[in-house]
């Protein structure tokens, strides 16, 4: 055995041997692509480099003390030279406390993992050159991103999102890489109830609501489980129906979640692409549209337009912390992007969407809760938008209370789509309201009178 002075020295020696071998190929573009694919964890490329490292270690007899975050010399050398370096234990969830960790951050050379709902500083560091190598490899997966741009979002093979803030937008020496892992694989209401994100007693109600086919929005701040709940809700959808999903960030792999469902998954690149895609989407003959992560007026406009033209089962997520103003906030974004009268747009939103599911993150950031369910009602004769709270979370008791009525327009939709599901839904809602009653008037009238003055 040839004892090296340090693990870093060993990695450098092996990297030099790999570089010499790849330089002899005289195919720099192919080598760069192979290295990038290895860093992202693609099996063929990972195995190629692991076999090469194993052979070099065996032939040379090199040995050294191994950092605590690696479980073998071969693993450590691969990760340092061609993987995620000291982030690999978070990527793989090798420690028990990392198996449920949803985020990691690299700020400068400091490494943080989310543990127990908090970001915890780790003993390992990620030097500048290694961060730049990782950044370059990640950007190869998204050719539309220019290496000189200061901000990027890319996605790994497992759906994890990586956000990169380079110098030019971050403080000098404090470039940042943020990893977010989407690791919930069991998309069922039972699993959500087990996590106490939703009330177990509402499972049958939710299944009936999916069956009826309302247009629903799942809202909340970042990291509140709204995307996970959308995926859960959608997983109960009739797999014979044709769907169209639009998303600017490819987070939801429906071909894996619902492998039998004919869902057209579109990932338009930016605002201009969204503008061009509206007409093709409307002609795609989808039974429903999913607008995952509606961030701007154009994506919101597509969802509202589809729903307003009679499409049922429209679903979307939307960032907001004040769900009672959902109609105003959505309309405002659409007007800013596309123009038009604000209150007229609000009416279209109110007539297009039926229920709003609002999610929050508790002080222990690993815990998410359904904060409220709102039914949107629009009175045509009065031109009045009201919000009816049919479910509310009690932070003190860590439980939910209910009111038991839905609007006549929701009954009409249920009668058209599935009278049996509507009957079950109303029965379940009445029982919830009787067993867990909400105090006070559930009907709220947000003040929008000042917006009605302009002719519609």
What's a concise summary of this model?
The chain has helices at about 5-25, 30-40, 45-60, 75-80, 90, 130-140, 190-195, 205-210, 225-235, 255, 270-280, 295-310, 325-340, 340-350, 410-415, 420-435; strands spanning about 1-5, 60-65, 105, 110-115, 120-125, 150-155, 160-165, 175-180, 215-220, 245, 265, 290, 315-320, 355-360, 370-380, 385-395, 400, 445. The chain is α/β, with parallel strands linked by helices and about 450 residues long. The longest helix has 18 residues, at about 45-60.
CATH class (first level) name of the largest domain: Alpha Beta
What is the alpha-carbon Rg in Å?
26 Å
Total count of strands: 18
CATH-level-4 superfamily name of the largest domain: P-loop containing nucleotide triphosphate hydrolases
Q: What proportion of the residues form beta strands (DSSP E)?
A: 15-25%
CATH topology of the largest domain: Rossmann fold
Average pLDDT, rounded to a whole number, is: 87
**Global structural class:** alpha/beta
What does the main sheet amount to? Answer: 10 strands, mixed
Span from first to last CA? 83 Å
Number of domains: 3
Contiguous runs where pLDDT drops below 50 for at least 5 residues:
none
- What global shape is seen? elongated
